[in-house]
């Protein structure tokens, strides 16, 4: 159980690039990082592409005026001169900026926490992975939904054989916020998401499917996709060549099959993500609008609902418990769990404890790499006319 007491010697001095007043995701980073006062302290930032607005915002949330910088290059250079300079930076800017900022941060000697999708290509991720290794730094990727403890219960039950042989994987993350073209007219965040120069090779695949794909990897670490077919299209034609809707079929190396649906034009739907894993003995189902529960369905028996925080769960699913059973946890706690894990991983890295890191589960550079690999394979299949491709 977590109660905010320190897990590492002292909090990391932390900065943000992006995530300012106009950013959609910035507050989630701060909710996550600052939930445990003992893990991170926000001491600096270049919060906005608009320097004046970024400085005003930084001061407004309590950062010293002289440490609210006009851009990330100045942030890294000036902080490097201070004895109490930053040790880690979070990147919460549009996709097309991640690679350059991440590279600059590593060269400045910082650990990095970066938004998904990490970069545009797996080649870029491999390059940054090597650089991070050379510099002895951690890269965390904010698959922010994946910190719900009940997912570790699901992972445990699958590993324990409670479901039998895994046969079917069913992933879905859909919403209707871009059902109309006007979404782009009223929101800068919606506009850049359909511009390949900023969003990368995909819209909805990179934007939301990477979250659900990572959850499937977390639950099924023993299974790898061998072949994949992706069909993507844009119902709003101006978004082409990027897609606002995509379906995938997957073949896994253990004989299991999968289907996935990701959409920004699922008009009226507010259910967010669902992950259903079907085995030969039982199935489980996770809905991220209620991360306090896991459905467990054994053939021939009444449905069971496993509740977060209860003693009957595996120890791995109780370690990150914060509020106790009965009291609802949600996305904020999930982000806090992820951020605490980043802090623990960075601390272990600084101490050279590679043995610990080998077995420590958190969304790091390899999770970011697999997310970009997933996007690349989906796009390659779709752009050849929705054909089966080897997953590579
Ligand atoms: P957004 O357009 O709402 O905000 C981007 C912010 O970055 C803006 O405030 C902008 O001023 C700032 N910015 C842009 N370039 C900058 C630069 N060079 N230096 C400093 N600030 C800069 O975008 P968003 O929806 O917050 O998405 C940002 C990133 O987060 C994207 O990569 C997106 O995929 C990801 N995201 C992740 C989640 C999640 O759950 N993990 C949720 C939403 C978005």
CA radius of gyration is: 21 Å
Enumerate the spans where pLDDT stays under 50 for 5 or more consecutive residues: none
CATH topology of the largest domain: Dihydrodipicolinate Reductase, domain 2
Strand order of the largest sheet: 13-12-11-10-6-9-8-7-14
Give the structural class.
alpha/beta
What proportion strand? Answer: 15-25%
Count of helix runs: 13
What is the CATH class of the largest domain? Alpha Beta
Main sheet properties? 9 strands, mixed
The ordered string of helix (H) and strand (E) elements is EHEHHEHEHEHEHHHHEEEEEEEHHHE
Number of domains: 2
> How many beta-strand elements?
14
CATH superfamily of the largest domain: Dihydrodipicolinate Reductase, domain 2
Shape: globular
Through-space gap between termini: 39 Å
Mean pLDDT, nearest integer? Answer: 97
* Bound ligands, named by name, code or SMILES: nicotinamide-adenine-dinucleotide
